[in-house]
Structure formats: structure tokens, C-alpha cells
Amino acid sequence: MLRVGINGYGTIGKRVADAVRAQPDMEVAGVAKVSPDYVALGAAEAEYPLYAVDEDRTDGFHEAGIDLAGTVDDLVADSDIVVDATPSGIGAQNRPLYERHDTPALFQGGEDATIAEVSFNARANYDEATDADYVRVVSCNTTGLSRLVSPIHEDYGIEKVRTTLVRRGGDPDQTGRGPINDALPDPVSIPSHHGPDVQTVFPELDIDTIGLKVPTTMMHVHAVNITLEEAPDDVSEIRDRLRGEDRLLMIPDYAGIDGAGTLKDLALDAGRPRGDIWENCIWEESITIEGRDLYCMQAIHQESDVVPENIDAIRSVTGLLDGPESRALTNETLGIGLSRLDNAEERAVDRQTAD
Amino acid sequence: MLRVGINGYGTIGKRVADAVRAQPDMEVAGVAKVSPDYVALGAAEAEYPLYAVDEDRTDGFHEAGIDLAGTVDDLVADSDIVVDATPSGIGAQNRPLYERHDTPALFQGGEDATIAEVSFNARANYDEATDADYVRVVSCNTTGLSRLVSPIHEDYGIEKVRTTLVRRGGDPDQTGRGPINDALPDPVSIPSHHGPDVQTVFPELDIDTIGLKVPTTMMHVHAVNITLEEAPDDVSEIRDRLRGEDRLLMIPDYAGIDGAGTLKDLALDAGRPRGDIWENCIWEESITIEGRDLYCMQAIHQESDVVPENIDAIRSVTGLLDGPESRALTNETLGIGLSRLDNAEERAVDRQTAD
């Protein structure tokens, strides 16, 4: 049983911990946290051994009645691999700690690509992380783009990608962030850093991105253009191709899902943990071909789409399973895919055939 | 087994259906819905018999591959009691349908109080609904105020309540509603209708309310003032009194919960269905006494706080259990109360005592 330590128990860390616990081949060695807030209370309730990030900050946990198993140094010593889910930039400060213990580590997409040997996406380059000591799981936006680009690239060839990323201002618990009541060019320089980040996964890909930030907290939305090398005869061919991908969710027009609010409501109705949406959500009606230009819009759940990627990266680094096996196991254990949408589609098709 | 029909399967109806299913003494006869959207797909997935509200609108369900068990008339005929969770004003149009079938019905707080013999809150007036044919479960805001007023009224007497309701603009899926980027006096007339609505539960209570609407979707927030007839010696007495109430959740200061965003994150971390918060959330630090004036702030989850009240109202109308028994069973089956907050508090107290 692989022992996974999680350093940083926030939006991503707490989800990775629960996902690790759901796997048959790994277990949570413990989680490290800075402050004894409600998220720490959740870790205690989940009975994850809790480690303080800093010796100087153990008193707060003590006062809140939370027991500590030790400090983050103890956690790393007791782990076969560490998932670093600390805020952007802190991961780089932590790397010497992992080196000292000779423990492999995953970093998140907020870190600079140079922190690791490989920037990872399970669909695009699973094998590249095998036997690497340090791997960076790319950001939510880069994950979303990589998943979409992969099958298109394989089947049609890509001349160029041009994408506008309309990004949420902060996560639901980040009350203090902006913007409020504005749509900010962010960064104002073009191309934004997202394009080069996709190139850490697809080095040869020609891609430019433009970034904005808006006053929402639920999901990012991408307006995507991909100029194909060779266009299919019919757009339905692309739709079928994308529908066949396990981490792309097609949103049918009749379902009345008009944005992130209804998508989150759908996920909560489905009983998903924390209402998470691990898949790219692509509005089926938006998939359009004009000449060799493919267009679509997709929503990306920034809190959770990298979670299955972290699980797969753990398996790649440690050699537990090959790519297709790992992805299938991760999908099954987390519950990826939403049968109520697929079934309705099938039932409707069956019925039309019967009519 | 009491057969409960649910007419209107939206924000409230889908939650009431799941809550009914969780009870040992009742079952879902079926749910009625207008349109075959993603929420209807959820009903199909949950295997609730689905009834069309309108004969003329069955084609859409057919096209979406959703089977129908009949129309709403069939549902009422097959139910021992109906929970009407249709949009405000539609309940009044439906009452003749329930009368024709001689079927008791619950209406929601969006209906005028005159629709029913009793306006109901489980903590305040459970017994008044027993044997009534038509009962109105008061709105989310009135429910929140009634729960808070009850224990204070019993122990200290209330001279007057003055409350400002800072209300969310719409539910998370109601993308088309306002306001955006404004805080609207709503209604601009004072007192707002909320005070008189609380008086449908507490006829003798002197209460004035002011309503506003802001661009949030997660929860309402109440700024409450209650002038007591007799003030306690120490504010901690009030805190302990409120902490003893099963549907009031005390939010401790150290937990870092600063608003509805973190409250929802907490509920999702706790694995609650749809991240629901059935309890009033009272910031413990806000509970303050100045002379005979008691102040506090509480957040009210508009999507779910009336759900346990509907379950209790079903039992009151049909005489299944008495009030304390019903409330206890509802609390237990839904999972009301958040042990991670209570336990932390107890652990901290234990530890301080030990120190």
C-alpha cells in the first residue's frame, strides 16, 4: 500500500486526500496544514493524521482541541510520495525538504514549470512521469486545454490553437479576492502564460491564449478556437470523438444547463462529493466547424479537475500501473462520468429509433 | 407507510423528495415536474416516478428519453398527502386539485398565508397543524427567525424584534435574476412583509423587519436585534441557551468562517447532500447584549432550511408522531448538527480543563 503524504490541506489538498483514500492501492499517510480552521476540523473528523507546517504554530491547534501527529518533516519521513498542494510559490520553497528525505513529490500548476522534470497531464503524457522524482501536475486551465487538445491533435492534426480564458476571480471560500463588478484583462499582455504552459505538455503545439478575470467563483469558461490541419466532413464526427473521451462531459442542449450555476447544481444533485466536476464540461451545441476552424466553449471546475490527474501522476511516478489502467481505475473510484446525461441521450436515441 | 406526492420538483421539491425517502415512516409516491431539464434527469436517475404537470407538455419528456408515470392528477390520486413545492402563486392555483381529491397538502412560504389554516414552524407551533387539511410551511427567512425567537421568547420574554434581512438575489441556478452590483432596498416599504409573516407563527410578537437584496446566491444574512423583557446577567447564558437548540448552529470564532462562501465550503467538506445547511448559522462572536438589547448575525440557507420543517409538517398533519419525536427523527435521518464544530469545542474545553 503506497503511503501518500499531502502537504497543504486547502482546496486541492483536501480533495486529493479524499481521492487517495478512495484508491485500492494507496493510503493517506497524513496531511499538513498551517492553521486550525474549519478545514483542519474536517481533517480531524476524517481521521487524517494532521501535521503542523510550522513548529511555532502548534499552539493554535492545541487551543482548538485538534491533536497533531507531528510536523511536516515527520510527515515527509513517513511518506512514500508527497503531493505538495501548498499555495503557488511555496512548493518551490518545499522542494529541498523532499530532496533531504529523498522522497518523490508532485507539485501543482501554480509552481513554475522548472520546479520539476515533467509537467504532467494523464491523457497527454502519462508515461513521461514514470520514474521521475519531481513532477508538476499542470493547472486547472492547462489540464482542461490538454484534455481537449489531445484527441483533436491525434485525429485531425492542429495548425494552431487560439483560446480566450474567462477565469473565475477566486474560489467560493476566497471572499477577499477580486474583481468585483469588472472583467479584467489578466494578464493584460498577450499571449497569457497559459499558452506556454500548455506547451510544457505539448512542446510542438502552436497556441496563443488571452486571459481575463471576472467576478464569479464557480468555474472558468474557455472560448476555444482550434484551426485543424484537416477538417472532418461533418461536425458530428468531432462531437462523437469528444464524447468518447472519459474526462470530457458533453452538455446536451435540452438539459437547460446554461452556465456554471446549473452545472454545479447538476453535480450536487448527482451526489458528487463537494459538488465536484472533474471533467471538462463542453456545451455540445457550441461545437462548430467553419472551414478548418473548430470552435467550442467549455467550463472547467478549478477546484477539482486536477484531482484525478494527481492520482494518475502518483501511479505514473511510482510505476504502480500503466496509463490506461490508472486512468480507468481513477475514473471508476471517483465516479467520473455522469450517467444521467449519457443515459438520457441513449434512451432518447433508442426511442427515436423505435418510433 | 405514508405515501407523499411532491408537486413541483425544483430547489425545494427535489430536497423534500430526498428527505422523505430518508424517513422510515414515509415514501415518495412520485414527483411532478413541468420541463424535462437536468433536474428531471436527476429524478429519473433517483427512480422517482415522474409525473407531467401538463398533458400538453409530455412530448418534451418523451424526446429526452424520460418515462412518465402519468400526470399530476394521477399523482395526487395516489398520494396520502401532497407537498406543493411549485413556484410562488402556483400553489394557490393548485389547491382546488387537492380539494377535489380530498388530499391534505402542504404549501410553501411563497404562498399567501390565507392559503392554509396554519402557518407552520416545527419548533414554534408543531401541534397547531395536527389534523389540519392545508398547512403552509413558512419561508426560509421566517423559518430562520422563528427558530431564533422561540427559545428567547420562552426564557427571557420579548418586548420587540427589529431585524434587517440582507437577502441573496437568487439561487445558484437562477442565472437570470438580479440584482447585479447593487444593494437594493427590497421591498422599499418598511416594515417589509417578513415581520407580518413571522406573526403568522407568533401572533402576539412585536416585530419590524427591513429587507434588502444583494448580488449573492448562497445564503441570506440577518442582522437581528431583540429587545428582551428581562436580560440575563451574562451574554454567555444566551450563547449556551442557543447552543442547546438543535437547529441553531453556533459558528466559533477560531474556525475562520467569515461568510456564506466558507459556510458552504464547510458543509460540502462535511459531505452533506448538495452542501445543504438546514440549521441557522449564528456567528457566536456576534451574540451581544447591550442593556436589554440582544444582537446577533445569522446566515440562512434559502435552499434547504425549510426541508426538515416540511418533513415535520407532514407528520403533524397526519398525526404520525408528536413534535419532539418528529423533530428528533428528522434531525437524525437528515444528519442535522455538525459534530466537527461541537467536538472541537468540547475537545478544547476538555483540554483547557486538563491544562
Automatic annotation (TrEMBL), chains A, B:
Keyword Transcription: no
Protein EC: 1.2.1.59
Protein localization: Cytoplasm
Chief location category: cytoplasm
GO biological process, one term: glycolytic process
Class of enzymatic activity (EC top level): oxidoreductase
HAMAP family: G3P_dehdrog_arch
Protein name: Glyceraldehyde-3-phosphate dehydrogenase
Organism, scientific name: Natronococcus amylolyticus DSM 10524
Lineage: Archaea, Methanobacteriati, Methanobacteriota, Stenosarchaea group, Halobacteria
